[in-house]
Amino acid sequence: MRVTGGQTDEMLARHIIRESKDILNWIVEQGVRWQPSLGGTLSLGRTNSFFLGGGRAMLNALYLTAERLGVEVEYDAEVTDLAIEDGMFLAARLKRPIKGETEIRATSLVAAAGGFEANIEWLKQYWGEAADNFLIRGTPYNRGSILKMLLDKGVQEVGDPTQCHAVAIDARAPKFDGGIITRHDSVVFGIVVNKHAQRFYDEGEDIWPKRYAIWGRLVAAQPDQIAYIIFDSTVVTSFMPTLFPPIAGQTVAELAGKLELDPAALEKTITEFNAAVRPGTFDHTILDDCRTEGITPEKTHWARRIETPLAYPVRPGITFTYLGTRVNKEARMLMEGGKPSANMFAAGEIMAGNVLGKGYAAGMGMTIGSVFGRIAGREAAKHARN
Question: Are residues 140 and 179 in the same domain?
Fold first, then answer.
């Protein structure tokens, strides 16, 4: 409720939390393996579980299990149309590179096709030209075509189209498919400035897993959608390393030159920040007493002086969008007017907006996908059998 500002379906949120307890063991039964708890970095050891080998290893394991169960997977098959009548799915039209077009009829449909984060033109409808400077953390194929078809055919929409999971990622990352190795977790250890070398938000507002996903939107609101994380060289081993090395300078002025920032402005910002830092006991696992006093914005926790600065340039990295299909506890899509669909279900990012009106807490995306994926599969199978 806190991270979404109350913009969530509380009943569905509580349902996900209850159901997630069984996922830890159930997903292992499907062939997925967990890695030992992460320790020593940003409280993640006590809040999050990680898949051994990451997301690709998880997907490979699930595909293998599905194939053993007799599931056939059609790769490079684009869905070009959905036949839906009175809330009832009838068939999907497919276009394939070699086999051509075909129609597949089925008794149930599960939509798990993600959001529209890779559709820059769609993003620009809400963000304007700023969307040209967004980087997309995942596949270039998540263009929202299935989502648009469903909404156009009477499925009720949920969520704000401007809300999304967006983190600060390295500005040197590729336009698509940068993945987690371009994400920066160094914000809480330093300060963040825009192209005018001005700070614009409290870098120590809350524990990092509750706040890392706000920084993409914050950077998106800055001039030219660019910002710079600046921290002292002594903290470089305190956060997970990224693909790109930090930018260094012997002096603040030299660093500013490399970042193409006004040296005098950056010097002033860092000097004022250092003067405002009040002594305390640093502890990144709690809301400690290391803070600033007398500057705006203040840094409420984890404030330490910057003596030998290093920097990362960052841009908004869009992970997934929150506009989606409204569902009930059975993962059944709701039609306009509120009537549940007879045989259409949704799971993952295409329905995450039911729970995530805005904001994010680390691990919620995988939790929503896992829990509602399982529910949608179970309910679709039950309908098919009946």
Answer: no
Query: For 11-67, how does the pLDDT look when each residue is reduced to its tens digit (9 = 90+)?
Result: 999 999 999 999 989 999 999 999 877 665 555 666 677 888 888 899 999 999 999
Answer yes or no: are the C-beta atoms of 380 and 373 closer than 8 Å.
no
8 Å CB contact between 253 and 263: yes
Kind and range of the H or E run holding 344: strand 340-346
Instruction: Using alpha carbons, select from 359, 376, 358, 354 the residue that is nearest to residue 13.
Output: 354
The reply to whether the predicted model has a pTM over 0.90 is: no
Residue/partner pairs of 30-37 with CB below 8 Å, 24 or more apart: 30/61, 30/62, 30/65, 31/61, 31/62, 31/64, 31/65, 32/57, 32/58, 32/61, 32/62, 33/57, 33/61
Distance CA 210, CA 6 (A): 15
Statement to judge: residues 113 and 253 lie in one domain: no
Radius of gyration of the chain (CA): 23
278-311: string of b/e by CB count within 10 Å (b at 16+)?
A: eeeeeebeeebebbbeeeeebbbbbbbebeebbb
Note whether 62 and 30 are within 8 A (CB): yes
**b/e map 16-55, b = 16+ CB within 10 Å:** beebbeebeeebeeeebeeeeebeeebbbeebebbbeeee
Distance of CA 61 to CAs 45, 107, 279, 370, Å?
Answer: 24, 27, 49, 14
Query: Which residue among 317, 339, 363 closes a domain?
Result: 317
> Which H or E run contains 254?
helix 252-259
Measured distance CA(204)–CA(219) in Å, rounded: 16
Number of domains in the chain: 2
Query: Within this chain, do residues 258 and 332 fall inside the same structural domain, yes or no?
Result: no
Can you tell me the distance from the alpha carbon of 81 to that of 156, in angstroms, rounded to the nearest whole number? 18
CA end-to-end span of the chain: 38
